[in-house]
Amino acid sequence: MNKKIISALLAAVLSVSIAGCSDESSNAGVGGLKNAEAADKLSDDEAAIWVTGDDYPLTVRDFLKYETTIESKPEKVAVMSGTPLNIWYDLGGKSVCTSDVSGNIRLTEGYEEEIKALPQIGPVYSVDMESVIAQEPDLIIAQVGTQSTQGAKLREMGYNVIQTHIRGYDDVVDTYRAFGKLLGQDELAEQRISKLENGKKEITDKLPDDDISVVILYVTSKSLAVKLDNSIAGDIAKILELDNIASDLPPDTIGSETTPLDIEYIVEKDPDYVLVTTMISSNEEARKTVEEQFASNPAWSSVNAVNEGKVIYLPQEYYLYNAGPYYVDAIKYMAQSIYPEIYGEAEVFD
């Protein structure tokens, strides 16, 4: 399909989307929510992805409650985000493209070079839809949030689109089962899940009976916020029975995994550890940015964890993108950082 035709199709979809916005926002029937922004507001306890049917045709109900019936096993799948991409490849799947792969994502072992060689479709938060369409996919796997809008537009154009949302451990398990069904790899998926379960249990069985509190900072090049329990770091802290002091705070917006930074609240709660997650170019730059934040605001000197050096920088390889196949390694990293005497020293990330 040439670029002029693609551009015309995209323009048509955009105009229809704008014109029909008021009607679609209330149309949430059996076929699933049709408005991506409304769907993003679903609460976490409603989140799931599952597949019904023993063989093709299979029906997928994704995180946004869309139901997509796939008539036959897809041959050309476009996985637009590194998070589902890792799980897809771990079960033997292939993708015809991927969003930009940077050094801060741990790729599925044995497929690193193959994934890096895939056609690039732009940053995960701003994929080039023309590049996706040019691959002529028969299934598109998108990521909720950063790709909800693109996913909705591609669905309107007639493509089979699955919207995944892989934040915590349970999401990883659900996605393995769904992808296993789509790839005809149910048994392999259960093996992977069993490995994850055993690894998690091995860590949690050793947890001491301590009361440890943490605050989880989220740092970007432009802002500083606090992570809630529905984030990767928040989920892992919960698995390790750590008390996230922000657990009961309201999110920025409905469904958000962050809440605004309130340094006075942090000083009042005086957490035992400060955990830091970042979305900056590298782990090294992230550490530098956080240290500058601490130095520029004297209020941080009232937080004992900062004064005592109990600041843990969580590597982007595990905590920016969901670690997927390596989620247990992410759990282990936090466990080692808090309890090195039990779990050993944490791996060093540059």
Task: Summarize the structure in words.
This protein has 350 residues and is α/β, with parallel strands linked by helices. 40% of the residues lie in helices and 14% in strands. It has 16 helices and twelve strands. It has helices spanning 3-19, 21-24, 36-39, 82-90, 112-116, 129-134, 148-156, 169-183, 186-204, 232-239, 263-269, 283-296, 304-307, 316-319, 327-338, 340-343, and strands at 50-52, 58-61, 67-70, 77-79, 139-143, 161-164, 213-220, 224-227, 243-244, 258-260, 273-279, 311-313. The strands form three sheets. Strands 7, 8, 9, 10, 11 and 12 form a six-stranded mixed β-sheet that branches. The chain has a three-stranded antiparallel β-sheet with strand order 1-2-3, with helices on one face. The radius of gyration is 21 Å and the shape is globular. The protein starts with a helix and ends in a 7-residue tail after the last helix. Mean pLDDT is 86; it is low at 2-45.
Gist of the model:
With 350 residues, this protein is an alpha/beta fold. It has 16 helices and twelve strands.
Indicate the low-confidence ranges by residue numbers: 2-45
Computed Rg: 21 Å
Mean pLDDT over the residues: 86
Strand count, sense and barrel status of the largest sheet are: 6 strands, mixed
Order of helices and strands: HHHEEEEHHHEHEHHEEHEEHEHHEHHH
* Helix count, DSSP H or I runs of 4 or more residues: 16
Derived structural class: alpha/beta
Could you tell me how far the N terminus lies from the C terminus, measured between alpha carbons in angstroms? Answer: 43 Å
Question: Would you report the number of β strands?
Answer: 12
Bulk shape: globular
Helical proportion, percent range: 40-55%
Relative strand content: 5-15%
